[in-house]
Amino acid sequence: MKLIVGLGNPGRQYAKTRHNIGFEVIDELSVRFHIPLDQSKLKGIYGIGFYNGEKVLLLKPLTYMNLSGESIRAVMDYYGIDLDDLLLIYDDLDLPVGKIRLRQKGSAGGHNGIKSTVAHIGTQQFNRIRVGIDRPTNGMSVPDYVLGNFLKDEQPVIQEAVIRSADACEAWLKKPFLQVMNEYNQ
């Protein structure tokens, strides 16, 4: 079984914020793969279905960003999911808005959701899609920035990044992650 996790914060007040880009990709995959997010346990909301003959679990942790690893670890343990079958999607301040970057390992880079994930799964070596949200330039604090909405002119760019990230997830269900990484990091 493949586990695709999108990071974000639960609640309407966080919907469509920069920090919730992972949730947006999971929502896109839910529609695309016809996998409803209809199960709520293990500190998350998720759905299980099949795509291209592969069993897939789509997960949105409901622990809030800083404790994401709790839900990810619980789901991996409960369903016996191997580390190689995990793909995590999250926002990245160090990439321009809308740029995506696939990696097989790396540090948390200051991202508390990734810090929590690394702490709970015990390694930095897992597949990931980083979606660029850029850094604040107007003196805004990082927490206020990541919990803010995309600007009007950023919205089409970020929607394209959501589609491209979902495309990369879909490709991963058909090909090795390294091959997908080489295709999407062009």
List keywords for this structure.
186 residues; alpha/beta; Rossmann fold; 7-stranded mixed sheet; 6 helices; 7 strands; 35% helix
What does it look like?
The protein starts with a strand and ends with a helix. The chain has a single domain, classed as Rossmann fold, CATH 3.40.50.1470. A seven-stranded mixed sheet has the order 2-3-4-1-5-7-6, sandwiched between helices. By secondary structure, the chain is of the alpha/beta class. It has helices at 21-33, 68-79, 112-121, 142-146, 155-172, 177-184; strands at residues 2-6, 39-41, 44-51, 54-61, 86-92, 100-103, 127-132. Helix 1 (21-33) crosses helix 5 and helix 5 (155-172) runs antiparallel to helix 6 (177-184). It contains six helices and seven strands, in the order E-H-E-E-E-H-E-E-H-E-H-H-H. The model has no long low-confidence stretch (mean pLDDT 96).
